[in-house]
Amino acid sequence: MKEFLQQPWPWYVAGALIGLIVPILLLLGNKHFGISANLRHACAACFPAGINFFQYNWKKESWNLFFVGGILIGAMIAAFGIPDPNPILVHPELVNELKDYGITDYSSMVPTELVSWDSFFSARGLVMMIGGGFLVGFGSRYAGGCTSGHAIMGLANLQWPSLVATCCFMAGGFLMANLILPFIMKL
């Protein structure tokens, strides 16, 4: 069983399982899937204040906090309990491109040149972590949800705003990966 769990699952299995979340949540009480709303729930639960945005019945949505907790626990089990013994495979063309940006360590899923304390306190690290974190937080609030909420739940419900948001997420991702990120990586 451990060997089965250590192997990457094909996209058609993982995608179908993620897709089944939508009807299951709808059948279990008309619940909506999304991750970014959990920050609002956590703030409403932990920091009750006179801010109108946090004045709602967050306990009704507490199931979503357990869902996110399950994601974190599952990720920790996968990373530390049943890690994939195979080396991480990176396409040779991508290795050549990343070498130009100073990324040569492929011993983990995220290169240490990008995610470490040394890289965090560099110009590149500050721009990526603080700037990127701000843009993700602002963007998900401005769009009324995150990529999982819009692209999985919203599109499954045929919501026009979710289609627009998902198209904008994709366009922003292409723009970032092809034009902005190469500039930031050279900092």
Give a description of the structure:
This protein has nine helices and no strands. It folds into two domains: 1-83, no CATH class; 116-187. The protein is mainly alpha-helical and 187 residues long. 9% of the residues are buried. Helices cover 65% and strands 0% of the residues. Helix 8 (147-156) packs antiparallel against helix 9. The longest helix is centred in the C-terminal third of the chain and has 26 residues, at 160-185. The radius of gyration is 19 Å and the shape is globular. The mean pLDDT is 86.
Rounded mean pLDDT is: 86
Shape: globular
Broad structural category: mainly alpha
Terminal Cα separation, in Å?
45 Å
Proportion of strand residues: under 5%
| Quaternary | single chain
Short description:
The chain is an all-alpha fold and 187 residues long. 65% of the residues lie in helices and 0% in strands. The chain is globular.
